[in-house]
Amino acid sequence: MSARRFGQIALAGLGGAASAAVLASLAVAQSGPQSILPPGFDDPVVTPSPTPTPQPGTTPRPAQPGAGAAPAPQPGAPLPGVQPAPLPADLPPLPKLDREVLARLPSLEELDNLSTDEIDELLGLKPKFDIPPGARRALTRVGILSVAEGGLPPAALANQPVSLVRAALAGTKGPLVSRWGHILLRRALASRMAAPDGMEPAEFAALRAGVLNAIGEYTITRALVQDVDTNDWSSALTSEALAAYLATGDITGACPAVRLQGSAREDAEWKMLQAICNAYAGESALAASQLDRALGQGIAPRIDVLLARRFAGAAGRGQRAVEIEWKGVEDLNAWRFGLAHALGEPLPGALVDEALKTRGGGYYARAGALLPMLPPTERLRYAPRAASEGILSASALVDLYSQLYADPAAAGPLAAQAAQLREAYTASNPAARIAAMKRLWEVGGAATTTDGYGARVLTAYAAARIPASADYAEDAGELIAAMLTAGLDRDAATWRSLVKEGSLGWALIALAQPQRVSVGQGAVDQFASATSGRRAALLAAGLAGLDRFGGSLDASLTRQTRWSRLITRAAEVENAALVVLLAGLGMQGDSWQQMTPLHLYHITSALRRVGLEAEARMIAAEAVARSA
């Protein structure tokens, strides 16, 4: 039976009044939609009650209040059909807003200029950590070099006086005169070590990062700070990390710390980094407004803000084009150097040349030599100085010249040097190879602001390929000096029987050879007669520190200072890490003229006594080779 037929039968079976009532209800239902909400959740529609028709023989009575309808809800009573969820018992009370709190609330205009992170920070919604609990790392040991990889023992400084470690690290504020001293100090600072008892691990990491930045090891600094979770960074560690990110051209690497710390700093560099990081977080409109405001308010020089705008626009979020104009820019700084290279924006050659001549020009040489985005011709502009200081190895420097030599479009003086280097390795006879090396030494000494030691580093392995022969004994001193820049002491020792006593080659072998051979006073005096008194004094100090001097010590070497007593005491307790830190403290300077025989004696002596004799030998030989 169909539904329609069933409905007809049902209606037919109803009485007259009932049938009319059903039809009336159907008509009302079809006149408009009915709400499906429970009672009390919709707007009630007031419909007049139909006036009852009096029946014959009856007397109408007034309607009773509320009769035939649901009782009216009382104030505060729940609505029919709705049961409110119970509130938790430990619900905190709402904060009371006083006038001071209201006064600190930003205006609508200020809210428009806030990033999402800043709004979260304002509302107290910003998390303290940006790393899940299971992924956080302990600070018990911080560093990137294990003992198996040549690092120092993890607990080497654990029981040392906090004040002494802090003073040694905080006092090292510049590069070292010694290439081998630099290499040794870098290895110590990169080791996975625990902080001394009583020093916060973040402070220990910040002090080490500060020294690494001071000696130009920005890549190592970046790796070191990345071994510490960003939420554990102190203000000092953040500053060193930002310097390393800028020097390595890794601008967005600073964004996790910048966004996590929010308004922790108010300097111009921080504000520009905030805008850049906002752009790379997808808030390009906010970043544009922040940098426009920075340009209008003059918080930084125009060129610095324009570089920031260009970098923020590289996020690819519809930023407008920015033209960099160097006209009128008279000096270079770390921000301009890092941002320009990260953007691929060419720096004016005259600006760079002038910067390299300044007292702080070493910063650009140290940073530029390691920037991976630069072509070999640009990196080789900085590489010789970086190699002479120990930042670049001999192999890395040769690789740079090899890339240049392989470029068919290469031309100019650097391309000529690359060709000379190839001849120094592949010429048909040793004499031709030595001649090629000499040309490189001459050019290297004239083209750099250092003593030309980078050219010796470049030819270290080429010099080791020259067979020891009396035919080339005249050039043995320079060849041996080149070999020792790469630590090729055994290759240098093959010339031992061919060098004349009192010559430069003889002095270098006496210091650098692995075998401990005592040298008498007469031989040192003979060397002094053929060279400067300063170089002879350094030879005697190095031999004495290595326990290879058979003569009498000069009174100046036995003089004690507070530093000499500290490094001697550290050697007595056989603490290699503390000896290295104190040795680095004593080797600061721009040239070997600042290194005294007293310092060389105590450094080589202490290193030898703690098991670092190989490094001590290289430092002593370098002192004689580079001193005038």
Q: With helices defined by DSSP (H or I, 4 residues minimum), what is the helix count?
A: 32
Structural class: mainly alpha
> How far do the termini sit from each other?
120 Å
Return the average pLDDT rounded to an integer. Answer: 85
State the helicity in percent bands: 40-55%
Tell me the major beta sheet.
Answer: none
Cα radius of gyration in angstroms: 40 Å
Commentary on this structure:
The structure is a single chain. By secondary structure, the chain is mainly alpha-helical. Among the domains are: 108-132 and 249-369, no CATH class; 377-499, no CATH class; 505-628, no CATH class. 54% of the residues lie in helices and 0% in strands. It is built from 32 helices and no strands. It has helices at 3-12, 16-31, 99-104, 108-112, 116-122, 162-170, 179-190, 201-214, 218-225, 235-247, 255-261, 268-280, 284-297, 302-313, 334-343, 349-357, 362-368, 376-389, 394-406, 413-426, 430-447, 453-458, 460-464, 476-484, 489-493, 504-512, 521-530, 533-545, 562-572, 576-586, 597-609, 613-626. α7 packs across α30 (576-586), α13 packs antiparallel against α14 (302-313) and α19 crosses α20 (413-426). The longest helix has 18 residues, at 430-447. It is globular. The model is unreliable at 1-31 (pLDDT under 50).
